[in-house]
Amino acid sequence: MVENSVLIERGRETLKKPTNREGEPQPRNIQRADIVPSSGYVLVVDGCMKNEYADEAAAKKAGEDLLKRYPMLFIQVFDARTKTRATLKAS
After folding, report:
1. Is residue 2 over pLDDT 50?
2. Cα separations (Å) of 67 from 12, 21, 31, 52, 80?
3. CA angle, residues 23, 24, 27, in degrees to nearest 5
4. Can you tell me the distance from the alpha carbon of 72 to that of 54, in angstroms, rounded to the nearest whole number?
5. Is the pLDDT score of 7 beyond 90?
6. What stretches of 1-91 show up as alpha helix (H) in DSSP?
7. pLDDT digit string, tens, across residues 65-84
8. What is the pLDDT of residues 8-57, one digit of tens each?
9. What is the DSSP-derived secondary structure letter of residue 69?
């Protein structure tokens, strides 16, 4: 049925684990919320770091779009290089 899978047997049940073409399991890309990035810009929503952006304009645009949909949120743009935050206001 699935040609790119590895079968894992555990007791009586057999689980299918997706793999890449080399037969190795696909790596997981995990972002940790407790580590502050060293470069770029991060969108901070109600005190929690959410998305990371390469430039400030993209982070501000995403924050403004979010504020248009949900004006009750407290949104900031965090500059990782200078370790400063800029608060976005609902217009």
Report:
1. no
2. 51, 42, 24, 17, 22
3. 140
4. 26
5. no
6. 56-69
7. 999 999 999 999 999 999 99
8. 555 555 666 665 666 666 566 666 666 788 889 999 999 999 889 999 99
9. H
